[in-house]
Amino acid sequence: MLVLRVLNVVAPAYFLCISLVTFGLQLFLFIPSMFKDPSTTPLFSPALLHGALFLFLSANALGNYILVIQNSPEDLGKGLNSALPSTHFCRLCARVTQRHDHHCFFTGNCIGSRNMRNFIMFCLYTSLACLHSLVAGVAYISTALSMSFANPLAFLTLLPHSISQFFSGALLSSEMFVILMLYLWLGIGLACAGFCSHQILLILQGQTRYQVRKGMVVRARPWRKNLQDVFGKRWLTGLLIPVLNVGSDYHRQKDK
Questions:
Q1: Is 104 marked active-site?
Q2: Contact partners, residue 155, CB within 8 Å, separation at least 6
Q3: Is the dihedral of CA 162, 166, 172, 175 positive or negative?
Q4: Which of 11-15, 23-27, 239-243 has the weakest average pLDDT?
Q5: 43 with 59: CB under 8 angstroms?
Q6: Angle between the N-to-C axes of helices 173-204 and 116-144, in degrees from 0 to 180, rounded to the nearest 10
Q7: One of 90, 104, 110, 192 is an active-site residue; which one?
Q8: What are the transmembrane regions (predicted)?
Q9: pLDDT above 90 covers what percent of the chain?
Q10: How is 14-70 classified by DSSP, letter by letter?
Q11: Which residues pair with 110 in a beta bridge?
């Protein structure tokens, strides 16, 4: 239990550190390097388009991250035991949550019916921001080291070759750091994309990870109804900007 509590503190700090490093590399290294291209017009330069896209993805990722924390599942009270359907007592949060899915260590909160949509949007935009940074980093390294990534094997062999060049003094520390971040962005991006896809599949089936883990049988419902319960009727607004889960099944029940 002590290890889980430590992880509950370290994981959010790790996410924030990675976010700050990514912002720093994008704003002070990748984007300025794109302004050096004299063949582009100032209004439609790749640097401005790239910066606008990165800010859009980052704002949605961090905005939904904050909303996941702010909209933590309400404590139903110790009078409701975790044996009731779709409720669970989390020892880390010390609360009984409705339609509990899992405890997310990177946000330090439980994920339930109240913040599920914001959590999925957080995973989606984190994945897109990491993969976008990966592409920008590859373009920077390609220019800095005068190498081509047309062959997919070039990226797979980049790390071992870079390590040998770094210890021989042929590679700068900043360039080696960017190369390490490339593989970190790739790992985080693919992990978030896979986790997001898995959560959406569970939502389509009307299940949560907790119910699947416990082998609970859920009542079959149309997949459109299951999606509406989580994303609400205003799903397009939440897809473009980080907003509360307005119009979902949880908020309709709360209004009543």
A1: yes
A2: 138, 149, 182
A3: positive
A4: 239-243
A5: no
A6: 150
A7: 104
A8: 12-31, 43-67, 119-141, 178-204
A9: 49
A10: HHHHHHHHHHHHIIIIIHHHHTT-TTS-STT-HHHHHHHHHHHHHHHHHHHHHHHHH
A11: 103
Q: What is the CA radius of gyration of the chain?
A: 22
Alpha-carbon span 67 to 104, nearest angstrom: 14
The greatest distance separating any two alpha carbons of the chain, rounded to the nearest whole angstrom, comes to: 68
Checking if the pLDDT of 38 tops 80, the result is: no
CB 112 within 8 A of CB 73: yes
CA distance 157 to 201: 34
Query: Can you name the residues that pair with 88 across neighbouring β-strands?
Result: 97
In angstroms, the first-to-last Cα distance of the chain is 38
Which of 91-95, 217-221, 227-231, 235-239 has the weakest average pLDDT?
A: 235-239
Which structure tokens are listed for 8? Answer: 């509950």
Q: Could you say which DSSP state residue 73 is in?
A: P
Closest CA to 106 of 75, 70, 56, 69: 69
Helical spans, DSSP H, in 46-157: 46-70, 116-144, 152-156
- Read off the pLDDT band of 178 (50, 70, 90): very high
Burial class (CB in 10 A: 0-12, 13-18, 19+), 26: buried
Structure tokens given for 175: 């360039």
Q: Assess whether pLDDT exceeds 80 at residue 161.
A: yes
* Cα 36 to Cα 26, 134, 138, 178, distances in angstroms: 15, 20, 17, 19
- The CB density around residue 42, as the number of other CB atoms within 10 Å, is 8
Q: Are 68 and 118 contacting, i.e. CB atoms less than 8 angstroms apart?
A: yes
Residue 219 and residue 151: Cα distance in Å, rounded? 49
Give yes or no for residue 194 having a pLDDT over 90.
Answer: yes
- Taking residues 187-193, what's their average pLDDT? 96
